[in-house]
Amino acid sequence: MDMNEKIEILKSEFQKLSKDGQAWVQHLSVEMNKQEWFQKLPPFIQNIPPLQLYVALVVLFLTMFFFFIVRFFNRKTSNTILLTGLSGSGKTVLFYQLRDGSAHQGTVTSMEPNEGSFVLHSETTKKGKVKPVHLVDVPGHSRLQTKLDDFLPQAAGVVFVVDAVEFLPKSRAVSEYLYDILTKASVVKKNIPVLILCNKVDKVTAHTKEFIRKQLEKEIDKLRASRNVVSEADVSNEFTLGIPGETFAFSHCRNKVTVAEASGGTGEITQLELFIREHVKP
Ligand SMILES: Nc1nc2c(ncn2[C@@H]2O[C@H](COP(=O)(O)OP(=O)(O)OP(=O)(O)O)[C@@H](O)[C@H]2O)c(=O)[nH]1
Ligand SMILES: [Mg+2]
């Protein structure tokens, strides 16, 4: 073996050694990381056999998945729409328009919720199977407004009917009732959509929906200030409305709040039907 050959062999040996060394150092640092990570876990977990740990994780995941599915379908399958609003705003007339396509002249102040499950009158000519809507007309009389709480947990949507003709003299009472609905835990937590329906637009003296929306936002802003003072004293489960420090707007609500027009008297209820079918799929 000449000198050159010896040098070559030495070189390759050295290269091999340094490669092994590098790999060994890498392996060591990974192992150390693993151990450090493992040591950070609480001792009782370190003592659990890995198989049990995996089973527990799988069970936890499946349970979460199950709850998610149940919630998802519960919400999607609800077909209840509530008609609310002050007495005389025209809820019962709207109820009959939706069901029969006629106004049933001569309705009186309702004393009981008016309930029914049916396919909307305008859809009766449609071919194929249409999912019925469960409609509840909750009386507007102040002593009967509490009936609303019985139906809210199952609601897919709430229609808040406002008399657009007699709006100004009643605007304070209208705002108070709407404020109560928008701050209810069952509405906020379940993100129930609310449609403010300005009714009786067949009359020339009816206010526009834009005017009514602005007035309501102003009134609710005032109410918010006065009610916040009260609710600091007695702890209630109600939610506060809007963004603190900003003038109230319906767009600040977590749930969707929209405004539309209708005339139960003349049967102009397209926007109402669209809202219903947006939240109760046919
Ligand atoms: N001009 C006009 N009048 C209407 C309209 N809808 C309802 N009305 C009248 O408003 C009055 C009250 O209507 P209702 O449907 O009984 O009101 P409600 O909201 O059910 O009232 P409560 O049952 O007391 O909560 C009736 O005299 C109706 O004829 C409408 O679109 N246009
Ligand atoms: Mg009624």
TrEMBL record:
Membrane topology recorded in Swiss-Prot or TrEMBL:
Single-pass membrane protein
Q: Which Gene3D superfamilies match?
A: P-loop containing nucleotide triphosphate hydrolases (3.40.50.300)
Predominant location category: endoplasmic reticulum
Gene Ontology molecular function:
GTP binding; GTPase activity
In the UniProt record, does the keyword Protein transport occur? yes
Q: Where in the cell is it found?
A: Endoplasmic reticulum membrane
Q: Does the keyword Lipoprotein apply?
A: yes
Entry's transmembrane regions: 51-73
GO annotation (BP), single:
protein localization to Golgi apparatus
Kindly give the Pfam families that the UniProt entry links to this protein: SRPRB
Q: Which UniProt keywords apply?
A: Endoplasmic reticulum, ER-Golgi transport, GTP-binding, Lipoprotein, Membrane, Myristate, Nucleotide-binding, Protein transport, Receptor, Transmembrane, Transmembrane helix, Transport
| InterPro entries recorded | P-loop_NTPase, Small_GTPase_ARF, SRP_receptor_beta_su
Q: Name one GO cellular component term.
A: endoplasmic reticulum membrane
Q: Which PROSITE patterns match?
A: ARF (PS51417)
- Write out the similarity annotation: Belongs to the small GTPase superfamily. Arf family.
Please report the name of this protein according to its UniProt entry: Signal recognition particle receptor subunit beta
